[in-house]
Amino acid sequence: MKFGKVEHPETIDFTLPKDHIETAGVLANTIGNQPLSISVGCAKWNRQDLKNFYPRGTKDELVYYSSQFNSIELNATFYRIFPGEQYEKWYDKTPEGFKFFPKISRDISHLRRLNEASLPIVDRYLEVTSNLKEKLGTIFLQMHDNFGPKNWDRVVRFVEYWPKEFPLAMEFRHTDWFNDEKVSQELYHLLQENNIANIVVDTAGRRDMLHMRLTNNEAFVRYVGANHVTDYDRLDDWIEKLDSWKNQGLRNLHFFVHQNMELESPLLSAQFIAKLNKKWKTNLQIPKTLQDSTGKLF
């Protein structure tokens, strides 16, 4: 994930900003005693990208990956709409409780840019994606960084068209979505009124995407490491931020780790899980290949 990459990450202030003033109100509206849902993982299971993660002799990467993590941010679906049979195979290869968080096809987001002609593609995308059944997590839409507020009508039409039975998260990258207060308020309220998660992106070169504005009871966080020693320290800040949100009512955490070069994404994810288990007294599995016989992470 090269978006937001910088040449000298040691010069970046990685301090997490304060919450948006309306985030507390969103979390306070949690209804009932919902169970805590936590999904942590990487963006892909490709062996070439996740070098040294797979034991020698691994025959099926997804089978092994899903035995170690409880979820995957499925970026492959951005590049093509797979046939329904492929989703069925992914479903069958993964254990009970595993979740896929697929990215919406670029045909919809980047090529047709949410125009009217993209809507039939939405139907086709959802038809095959639904084959993941109960293993389907939140689907997410990522817009190009040149898709600005002048396209507001397209965003509204897409949101109104989207079937509400499919959980949705949206990521906007054009700076004016965040830097123009009137625009950002309209966007956040649209998402909130339609129960759509507002994705938070933590990447070195785009600190404005740390808007800290939740629009429903879901923290969908895309954490981008910079292949730098600071990647691990930054996780501590996220543990404290998420603990604060949990104390305010957060019940859904979906945290996915990227790097500019994906060599250490599994290790970063495992470190995050270990820290979260300690803080929240949870029992999420830590990948076996990333710990020694005593359970200590390498």
Automatic annotation (TrEMBL):
InterPro entries from the xrefs? DUF72, UPF0759_sf
The family database entries (Pfam families) matched by this protein are listed as:
DUF72 (PF01904)
Q: What is this protein called?
A: DUF72 domain-containing protein
